[in-house]
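Researcher: Good morning. I'm working through a list of sequences from a screen, and I'd like to move beyond sequence-only analysis. For each chain I'm collecting a predicted structure so we can compare shapes side by side. This is the next one on the list. No need for commentary yet; just the structure.
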Amino acid sequence: MNRKRLKGWMKHWDFILLDIFCLQLSSLLSFILLRGWQNPFVIPAYQQQAVLLFIAQLLTILFTYNYGGILRRKRFDELVAIVRYMLIIFLIILVYLFIVHQSSNASRLQLGWTSVGFILFDFIARLTHKQTIFRRSNKIENQRAVVVFTSSKLAREAIDKLKEPGTYQDYFITALVCIDDDPIDLSDLDVRVTTLSDEVMQKITHGWVDEAFILQPDDMSFPTDLMEALMEMGITVNFSVPALNDRRWPVTDMRKLGGYKVLTSSLRFASAGELFVKRLIDILGGIVGCLITGILYLFIAPAIYRKSPGPIFFAQDRVGQNGKVFKFYKFRSMYLDAEERKAALMEQNKVKDGMMFKIDDDPRIIGSEKKDKNGKPKGIGNFIRNTSLDEFPQFYNVLRGDMSLVGTRPPTLDEWKKYEYSHRARMSIKPGITGMWQVSGRSEITDFDEIVKLDKEYIEEWSLWLDIKILIKTVFVVLKRKGAS
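Model: Good morning. Structure tokens for this chain:
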């Protein structure tokens, strides 16, 4: 699943809010400067001015192109754009005042000081905000990993445009893959260059790759097999115009990638608003979950330590969205040598091909030597697993942004290495504490392809309402202890 970009001026909503704030601040300060310190919010003249400025600014935003290319502007160009922006607002207000016969020397003087203050404040604010954006985008962890596929003769052009200096780039090129056999020397390019092969596709399958960009040469047919493999992996693909009429992968977005206009296809696109609400729910849920985790720690920690001295939390590298590795946390429910004993228990694994690991009555669980009257283990480890209490530390992962409340379960590194093309698609979204698989049977489903099918169904049909339904179902599943092991 890939984030759908906002169109037009709405994609710069942060600058819009910044401009609105700076204009209102300038109006407030100019009012105080000319009329002395008093509460302006109870004065009708100030209230009218504030509303008038907002309406004029809104009209300027809607019917001018002030925000086009804002991240690429130099300082002088930015200053010119702000002055032009303010002049339009100034003229709209003057025309209104003239029409309603409310213009006066005082109102014009106040409007003049407001204009000067806005140009100064907004210039500083825009430059500061842009520096923040550039600084954040320069961190690898905040960028998208992009693999470029093209011919040898187009490689230099592709890299030059994608890494165009002075432009805002929220991605980095992890590799350039030549889809032809032309022996052109590309060793001087500042990226890793390779040729298309099964080995390269395996590396993409198991590596951190958020998106692919296919720059189609005119003298080659469209690489259908490559496109099918990338889409099967769940990787967002940006491709050039020749694929426009191919119905197998419908174009669902058009955007810019460096100096290129590209058509984009993905398993599922979500609007910025939808993803904002999903992240907001994750943050709120993460905060509440972390508080509950702290309370549970007071009771669970002594019980775990008494039976198996050692760390209370289990930390493990897991594979997250698009192959990005993160540190995954749980309450430790197994003995410290659990990973070493795993190999000896693989024959009992209920999931075929070892794509996941689940066995009945796992002897590595803390206290599993203790049995009930039916011969089932009843140790502290079994209790916290059967009640899903071991999952609560993952709310910290949710709060950090590594995971979501609802998603797909993150695989271990050794499981990830066994993934085929079709399996990778399940990790095209953030992993979750719960998901479609968990509320559809959890441990009863042992066919990994069925798990992948459920995960892809979730991705393709995703909505906020579907997340809410899964969360509600999860509560009932946990309370009934259905399918946990």
